[in-house]
């Protein structure tokens, strides 16, 4: 890429020949740097002629010179264009080659990336497999140790059972002798009579333990019941004593009440005649009240039979008060009509008014 930029810069540069220095010759001796100096001849003509001839020749010279320079520049330009095209073609080829190289590099990188991924996946699988195998190995090692421990325990158990079998061998012999001497119908029919005998012994032993426990519990219960019976007897004796004392007290109270009732009965018998007379008088008074209430009854009032004693007395009181008020209102009129009446008449009227007032006060009371 750097070469392409430098080529492009060179392509646009314009190469010119080294220009010689224009120097007027003022000395006659030779110079060392004559090769680089353009010599101008000494002009001896007059200025007018020089100008007239110089202008014509100068224009033609300049025109030719410019044409030559233009041709030269055009040739150089064509050469530069050709060189530029060649360089551009070379650049395009190099760019294509670079792109191909880049594509190859990308392909190689992709292949290498897939290769790395595969290797990474293989590495991970290998690590996982290694870890799994390590864990499996540890697990198997632990299981092996446990199995070895169980084997040792089983060996110990086997040796202990062998010792126990040798120790209990005499009991087996004893049971065999018992089976030989016991009746045939003592046990149920079975293939192994020794197991049947042991199960029968186990059943009898359990029954014995159960009965002993039941006997102990019943003995304890009997002791508890005896204690409760003693307590109940004591409470019964206390209750009998308290009931007897209460009975004696009630008998005394009964005797006192009987004496009091006898006195009351005697007194009642004595006052029975007086009570009969009072009841008779009370009946007469009630009949008189009913008769007076009938006299005082008005047409719109409640019937006398539906009134109680207080209502009847109030009815009589109201009736007497009304009559007394009427008598008092009528008394002054009689006095005005007989101003010269006898003294006896005035005295009788005053007595009547006093009697009415006393009756009114009595009924109100």
List the helices and strands and how they pair.
Layout: H1 2-11, E1 21-22, E2 37-38, H2 47-181, H3 193-296, H4 309-337, H5 343-364
Parallel strand pairs: 1-2
Helix pairs in contact: 1-2, 3-4, 4-5
List keywords for this structure.
82% helix, flat, DUF4200 domain-containing protein, 2 strands, 365 residues, disordered C terminus, 1% strand, two-stranded parallel ribbon, DUF4200, mainly alpha, CFAP_domain-containing
Q: What would your notes on this structure say?
A:
The structure is a single chain. This protein has helices spanning 2-11, 47-181, 193-296, 309-337, 343-364, and strands at 21-22, 37-38. The protein is built from 5 helices and 2 strands, in the order αββαααα. With 365 residues, it is mostly helical. Helices cover 82% and strands 1% of the residues. Strands 1-2 form a two-stranded parallel sheet. Among the domains are: 2-175, no CATH class; 298-336 and 347-365, no CATH class. The protein is flat and about 200 Å long. The longest helix has 135 residues, at 47-181.
């Amino acid at each position: 890429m750097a070469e392409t930029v430098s080529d492009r810069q060179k392509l646009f540069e314009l190469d010119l020949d080294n220009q010689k220095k224009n120097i007027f010759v003022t000395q006659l001796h030779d110079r060392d740097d004559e090769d680089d100096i353009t010599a101008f001849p000494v002009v001896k003509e007059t200025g007018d002629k020089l100008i007239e001839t110089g202008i014509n020749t100068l224009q033609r010279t300049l025109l030719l010179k410019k044409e030559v320079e233009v041709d030269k520049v055009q040739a150089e330009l064509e050469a530069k264009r050709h060189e530029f095209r060649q360089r551009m073609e070379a650049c395009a080829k190099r760019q294509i080659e670079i792109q191909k190289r880049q594509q190859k590099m990308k392909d190689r990188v992709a292949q290498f990336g897939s290769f790395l991924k595969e290797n990474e996946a293989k590495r991970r699988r290998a690590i996982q497999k290694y870890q799994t195998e390590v864990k499996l190995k540890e697990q198997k090692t632990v299981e092996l140790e446990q199995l070895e421990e169980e084997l040792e325990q089983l060996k110990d158990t086997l040796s202990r059972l062998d010792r126990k079998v040798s120790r209990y061998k005499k009991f087996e012999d004893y049971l065999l002798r018992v089976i030989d001497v016991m009746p045939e119908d003592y046990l149920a029919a079975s293939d192994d009579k020794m197991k049947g005998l042991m199960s029968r012994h186990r059943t009898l032993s359990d029954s014995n333990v159960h009965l002993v426990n039941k006997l102990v519990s019943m003995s304890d219960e009997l002791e508890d019941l005896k204690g409760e019976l003693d307590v109940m007897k004591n409470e019964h004796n206390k209750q009998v004593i308290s009931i007897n004392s209460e009975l004696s007290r009630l008998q005394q109270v009964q005797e006192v009440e009987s004496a009091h009732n006898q006195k009351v009965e005697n007194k009642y018998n004595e006052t029975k005649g007086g009570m009969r007379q009072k009841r008779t008088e009370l009946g007469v008074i009630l009949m008189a009240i009913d008769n007076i209430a009938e006299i005082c009854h008005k047409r719109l009032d409640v019937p006398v039979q539906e009134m109680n004693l207080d209502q009847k007395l109030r009815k009589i009181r109201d009736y007497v008060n009304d009559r007394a008020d009427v008598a008092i209102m009528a008394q002054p009129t009689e006095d005005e009509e007989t101003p010269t009446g006898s003294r006896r008449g005035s005295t009788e009227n005053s007595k009547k008014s006093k009697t009415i007032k006393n009756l009114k006060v009595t009924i109100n009371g």
